[in-house]
Amino acid sequence: MRSIFHNIGLALFTVLGLAIFCSGCTYSFTHSSQTGSSDMMLRESAQFEWGGLHVNEEYNGPQNAQELMKAYDTNYNSGYSKTEASVLRKVAGKEITSHRIELTVSEIDTRYPRAAWLQMLLDRGITIENFHEYSKYLLKRHTLVLLEDHPDLWQSGILDIPPTDDWETYKEAYINKLVKEHTKIRETTAQIERSKKEIELTKARIKHNKEQIERAIEQSKVEIERAKVQLKHAQKAMNSQQLEHVRKQLEHTKKQIKHIQGTLSAPKVPMLPQVPIPPPAPKLKTRKQSSYPPL
């Protein structure tokens, strides 16, 4: 089973760190990478130490070997400490080193001259933008020497390169692999940068929209307060009109009631003039009528 950290076909380049040691003002940098499977992997390591501050500055000059060497060789040569390439295998559950080389600067420059090696990579499309990348691609010469000096590795499949007995074929496949890995890294980096820009644009749009929303909210608050004032005034005016209308109705009702009351009350009868009443007439004495007929 292949380890998820060592998938064949995708080299894992890990910068272990730029370690700064304050005591003695010593600055060290170690570049390390490994690729392969859990059973067999290729490990590369380059160590540098400087007596002064080392800064991994970006390189913006021409992509040619002479200009790159002019920019970085002084730092590279003065800080060079140790470079190693090795093959690790697992045997009976234990990790052992089956192949290993460690060359000095002059030895590796003799096997693969620096200027020619760098220019060949640049001509294939590789670009170098800082000291870390410069040291990484110079480190690849050590790996190439390790592979060249051990033909049995050409058949091992350690770098996912088809087995072959011809060194030039294997060397060409190795360099093509470096170029493909570089292209993939640059494409991924470019995609990340594009994503960053899109994120920044999105954040800017969100901020703009947020500001617009906040302004709209504030404007709405002002409109609401204005509407409240207008409503209050309208209510007051309406109440005044209603009260006046009610007052007029009340006055009208009072008049109607008064009129009705006046209509319903009985009229006064006029007094007749007083006429003197005559005294009563004297009573006449009458003879009692006989019950017998007259003679």
Report Rg: 59 Å
Number of helices: 5
Average predicted local confidence, pLDDT: 82
Proportion in helices = 40-55%
Major β-sheet strand ordering = 1-2-3-4-5
Describe the largest sheet. Answer: 5 strands, antiparallel
Q: Alpha-carbon distance between the termini?
A: 185 Å
Provide the structure class.
alpha+beta
The helix/strand order is EEEHEEHHHH
Describe this structure in words.
The chain is of the alpha+beta class. The protein has a domain of 190 residues. The protein is built from five helices and five strands. A five-stranded antiparallel β-sheet has the order 1-2-3-4-5. It is rod-shaped, with a radius of gyration of 59 Å. The termini are far apart. The N terminus is likely disordered.
Short description:
Helices cover 51% and strands 18% of the residues.
Entry keywords:
5 strands, alpha+beta, five-stranded antiparallel β-sheet, 18% strand, 5 helices
Per-chain topology:
Layout lengths: L11 E10 L4 E11 L3 E11 L14 H15 E12 L2 E8 L3 H7 L2 H10 L7 H19 L17 H98 L31
Antiparallel strand pairs: 1-2, 2-3, 3-4, 4-5
